[in-house]
Amino acid sequence: MALTDTFVRQVKPIASGTKKYQDGDGMYLLVKLAGKYWRYDYRFNGKRKTAALGIYPEVSLAKARQRRQEARELLADGIDPSAAKRIGREEKLLLERQTFSAIAYEWLDKTKAQRAATTQDKVTGWLTRNVLPHLGNMPISEIKPRDVLLAVQRLETRGAVESAHRVKQLCGQVFRYAVAIGLADRDVTADLRGALAAIPRQHYAAITEPREVIKLMRAIHGYAGHPYATAALKLSPLFFVRPGELRSAEWCEIDLGAGEWRIPGVKMKMKNDHVVPLASQAIAILKSLHAMTGHGKYVFPSIRTEDRCMSENTISACLRSLGFEKEVMTAHGFRAMARTILDEVLEERVDLIEHQLAHAVKDVNGRAYNRTAHLPARRLMMQRWADYLDALRTGGDVK
Hints:
Layout: H1 5-10, E1 19-24, E2 27-32, E3 35-44, E4 47-56, H2 61-76, H3 81-97, H4 100-111, H5 117-130, H6 132-135, H7 145-157, H8 161-180, H9 210-221, H10 227-239, H11 243-247, E5 254-255, E6 260-263, E7 274-277, H12 280-293, H13 314-321, H14 333-344, H15 350-356, H16 375-394
Antiparallel strand pairs: 1-2, 2-3, 3-4, 5-6, 6-7
């Protein structure tokens, strides 16, 4: 006799062992102390086999009968239902491994050695917050250009145009990785060229007049904030590197004896290794700081945890506290300050300045110079620059 919904709901397990209740055509309800299980007995290639159809009440009687019918249809086509189910599970698992989310995290892990830890966190955050909620569960091979566009346009709508472009580029890198491992045919972001608004030209406010630099340097040397921030602020005009390169500096990159800071290419915008000759003033500041942070990884660790470097807003916050608004001076503005005064006031060689700014400089044959190009001359220039800043601050005879 076929089973009924009422019987399936009310039947209780026996005190010991298990009991089967037949529904017909090989399907039965297997009742144990642990629960109620749908099973289907059949023969395939002369062998008796059993397929699991689900667990009650998650799988109702009607649903179990539907699955039995599907299994009977497979048998009629010469297909083993158990094998088909296993293949289906494997295909589902494979599909889950081929989602944009899975590929993105795999790409992040594969390429993390190419990025500084802080950059890795930032890139992961961009994808996690802005892309994965919209594309994460989609098989990467099924994602269309418009799907990516709709995700990044949310950033554009918020006014974060530059971030929208960066996130689109990250998506492109994930797609190209998927192409390389055979899970996608092409990078669909190539079709989005021109689909986003152009990035507004960004001009970093900078003080470039020597008389104003006097006020800036005196304010910096009068700053009485946290020791890490104070040191970073004093070194900013001496190094004139990009703010991210400064705050992520590691002690293993700095040779105080040789007077050099060698920044690996993975941290640089142009991805080339870069050397910063250390003026005597910079060495003195670093030696003092080494007594406080030299036991750790970062020259400027976060005040919350030594596992991370200083916040990207620290130098800007210091400048604001000194009264220099963002329309007057920025952390990035130390580069423009050095570039302008070294060229127009101190009349240093432009190629040396460009080398020290880590801009692309090529020789007469069009080849990029290596990181040690003109290093002795750059070392002298950096010392003259530090001496000039000191002279401004202390009221010496300066141009």
